[in-house]
Automatic annotation (TrEMBL), chain A:
<dbReference type="InterPro" id="IPR027417">
    <property type="entry name" value="P-loop_NTPase"/>
</dbReference>
<comment type="similarity">
    <text>Belongs to the SIMIBI class G3E GTPase family. HypB/HupM subfamily.</text>
</comment>
<keyword id="KW-0479">Metal-binding</keyword>
<keyword id="KW-0533">Nickel</keyword>
<keyword id="KW-0342">GTP-binding</keyword>
<dbReference type="InterPro" id="IPR004392">
    <property type="entry name" value="Hyd_mat_HypB"/>
</dbReference>
<dbReference type="Pfam" id="PF02492">
    <property type="entry name" value="cobW"/>
</dbReference>
<protein>
    <submittedName>
        <fullName>Hydrogenase nickel incorporation protein HypB</fullName>
    </submittedName>
</protein>
<feature type="domain" description="CobW/HypB/UreG nucleotide-binding">
    <location>
        <begin position="37"/>
        <end position="192"/>
    </location>
</feature>
TrEMBL record, chain B:
<feature type="binding site">
    <location>
        <position position="93"/>
    </location>
    <ligand>
        <name>Zn(2+)</name>
    </ligand>
</feature>
<dbReference type="InterPro" id="IPR000688">
    <property type="entry name" value="HypA/HybF"/>
</dbReference>
<feature type="binding site">
    <location>
        <position position="2"/>
    </location>
    <ligand>
        <name>Ni(2+)</name>
    </ligand>
</feature>
<feature type="binding site">
    <location>
        <position position="77"/>
    </location>
    <ligand>
        <name>Zn(2+)</name>
    </ligand>
</feature>
<feature type="binding site">
    <location>
        <position position="90"/>
    </location>
    <ligand>
        <name>Zn(2+)</name>
    </ligand>
</feature>
<keyword id="KW-0862">Zinc</keyword>
<dbReference type="Pfam" id="PF01155">
    <property type="entry name" value="HypA"/>
</dbReference>
<feature type="binding site">
    <location>
        <position position="74"/>
    </location>
    <ligand>
        <name>Zn(2+)</name>
    </ligand>
</feature>
<keyword id="KW-0533">Nickel</keyword>
Length: 216, 118
């Protein structure tokens, strides 16, 4: 006998994500899901973002890693609330993990939660976490051809941060080719070239983000 | 490689529906998977085969994956067109404001089961 199901495979995740999205909206919290490769400068970018926005907004960070609490310690050292999620090998965060992290945060007091997803350009793109926006970081040493190899992540991102622009001369990064490839995959997404460690270009990114946060 | 996690969820849902219907065995699972998702057909099949093995209820089940080609509508001129993962511009007017109509599916379409009376 055939049984029709027509059931979305990720419906549990998506239902929980919808619940979280409502909870974030009720508390006027903007949630940013940051996607990038390992070593692209996610944590440095988060620290630079915190530095620029902490006077105006109350910020917390959810750190997703396969193991360790190295990143959460760096955030906490800045006096910012950080919750570490260890996925124990899983390649992406799911909304159930976010819920557990959110449960220990004081949502009423927060304006911005930055979720640092597991370093991976593939798997996290399929999972709704209840966020307001997914943003991706590509760093210059990874190469200008990445939009061609990992189109999915460039398509779900509402903005693309190009980090480590100070290394551009060393890595032969073709900025025009990169902009063109991103533009073809996701024409509406702004590209923010910056260096999280030197601070170059960080303003344009944090101005964009601040505007979004004020709107929720 | 999140196909194992995806397939674990698929089998849980399929098994629950099958048992609810009073089935004695799960025979087949049919999925629709959009090509714009990051789920790879081979990895889905591999995960399915690895997961059904342990349980007599699912051990003989087969998997059918229907891959769905991406299709979009141009918001400028209204043209509907099929495309691949990389080229979403409108082939009629070259517009880039397009709406994805199909290609991000991750759905269990149906299952086939053995009922005691079959």
């Amino acid at each position: 006998m055939q049984i029709d199901m027509k059931q979305p495979i990720l419906d549990k995740n998506d239902a929980l994500a919808a619940e979280l999205r409502q909870r974030f909206a009720d508390n006027h919290v903007f949630v940013l899901d940051l996607l990038a490769s390992p070593g692209s400068g996610k944590t440095s970018t988060i620290l630079a973002t915190i530095d620029a926005l902490r006077d105006e907004f109350n910020i917390a960070v959810i750190e997703g890693d396969i193991a360790s609490s190295v990143d959460a310690e760096k955030i906490k050292a800045q006096g910012i609330a950080a919750v570490q999620i260890n996925t124990g090998g899983a390649c992406h965060l799911e909304s159930a993990m976010i819920k557990r992290a959110v449960d220990v945060l004081d949502l009423e007091r927060l304006d911005l939660i930055i979720v640092e997803n597991v370093g991976n350009l593939v798997c996290p793109t399929d999972f709704d976490l209840g966020e307001n926006a997914k943003v991706m970081i590509l760093s210059v040493p990874e190469g200008d051809d990445k939009p061609l190899k990992y189109p999915g992540v460039f398509q779900v991102a509402e903005a693309v941060i190009l980090n480590k622009v100070d290394t551009m001369p060393v890595f032969n990064f073709d900025r025009a080719a990169f902009d063109d490839a991103v533009g073809r995959l996701n024409p509406q997404a702004p590209i923010f070239p910056l260096s999280a460690t030197s601070g170059e270009g960080v303003d344009a990114w944090t101005d964009w983000l601040a505007e979004r946060i004020r709107a929720v | 490689m999140h196909e194992l996690g995806i397939m674990t969820g698929v089998l849980e849902a399929a098994t629950a529906s099958a048992r609810e219907a009073g089935a004695t065995r799960l025979l087949k699972v049919t999925l629709s998977v959009g090509e714009m998702t990051e789920a790879i057909e081979d990895a889905l099949v591999f995960s399915f085969e690895a997961l059904v093995e342990g349980d007599p209820f699912t051990a003989d089940a087969e998997l059918e994956v229907r891959m769905i080609s991406p299709r979009s509508r141009c918001l400028e001129c209204g043209a509907e067109f099929e495309h691949d993962r990389f080229h979403m511009f409108c082939p009629e007017c070259d517009g880039f404001c397009t709406e994805l109509l199909a290609g991000r599916e991750l759905q269990i379409d149906s299952i086939e089961v053995d009922l005691p009376d079959d």
